[in-house]
Amino acid sequence: VPPATPYTITGGTWPAQIWSRFASSALTGSFAVLRGAETGETVEVEIDLSTGFLAGPLCPRQQVARIQVPADSVPTVICPIHNPSEIVSVGAVDVPLVINLALGDAVSALAEVGLQTTVDYQDGGNLARNTVFNQVPSPGFPAQNGTIVRLVVAGPAPGSTVPSLLGFPGGQAEVELADIGVGAEIVVLAESDPEDAARRPGVVWKQDPAPGADDTGSVTLWVNP
């Protein structure tokens, strides 16, 4: 006998749809809430272990576990893999676009909608220092209250100093600087002693600013041919 429904129905199809509609209505205007009490610097939260997101009502229960995680690392996004958008977006705000803003302006814009920030300083090329040039989650992503947005900012980090790069191969010196958000300008020029220059090809023999100086965002390196 042909089925009387437009698509195949299993035992959980209609209950899942009914629960989805109920949960979406019941939770409207509510933010995601951590379950359990805080314990020291960790909190107990239900996670969908297959996705790493906060467990939603439609996540397979065999994949959900209550775990203790550091308070600053708690997921704040309801699992979008197993839950429809009307549940994922309950209590959520769209992450605003803060790329190309100054760091202070970006942090303020995110705080206004209930989002927190963490900063990763990297070499931003020709960008002005403290300019945001990437963000995670991306703009428009539905984020719950308290979600931490990672901002990639043209460095270096405040208060950092120039490391010593004398004796480093030129390529490695560039990588070391990029790791702390500092740009490098390479000048290929032999040092004054021809024997030293021949003995140390491709090695940094001079730098400006000097090691230990305040970081200005760029270092000039003189490298033997």
How are the SSEs ordered, and which strands pair?
Layout: H1 13-26, E1 38-39, E2 42-48, E3 64-70, H2 85-88, E4 93-94, H3 103-112, E5 116-122, E6 132-136, E7 142-143, E8 148-154, H4 170-179, E9 183-188, H5 194-199, E10 204-208, E11 218-223
Parallel strand pairs: 5-8, 9-11
Antiparallel strand pairs: 1-2, 2-3, 4-7, 6-8, 10-11
| Unreliable residue runs | 24-39
Strand content: 15-25%
Count of the separate structural domains = 3
User: Compute the gyration radius: what is it?
Assistant: 26 Å
Strand numbers in spatial order across the main sheet: 1-2-3
Order of helices and strands: HEEEHEHEEEEHEHEE
- Please report the total strand number as a whole number: 11
Feature tags:
single chain, 225 residues, alpha+beta, Trypsin Inhibitor V, Chain A, 3-stranded mixed beta sheet, 5 helices, 20% helix
Report on the structure:
This protein is an alpha+beta fold and 225 residues long. The protein has three domains: 13-88, no CATH class; 93-154, Trypsin Inhibitor V, Chain A; 170-223, no CATH class. 20% of the residues lie in helices and 25% in strands. The protein has five helices and eleven strands, in the order H-E-E-E-H-E-H-E-E-E-E-H-E-H-E-E. The strands form four sheets. A three-stranded antiparallel beta sheet has the order 1-2-3, with no helix packed on it. A three-stranded mixed beta sheet has the order 5-8-6, covered by helices on one side. The protein has a three-stranded mixed beta sheet with strand order 9-11-10, with helices on one face. Strand 1 (38-39) and strand 2 form a beta hairpin. The longest helix is centred in the N-terminal third of the chain and has 14 residues, at 13-26. The protein is elongated and about 90 Å long. The model is unreliable at 24-39 (pLDDT under 50).
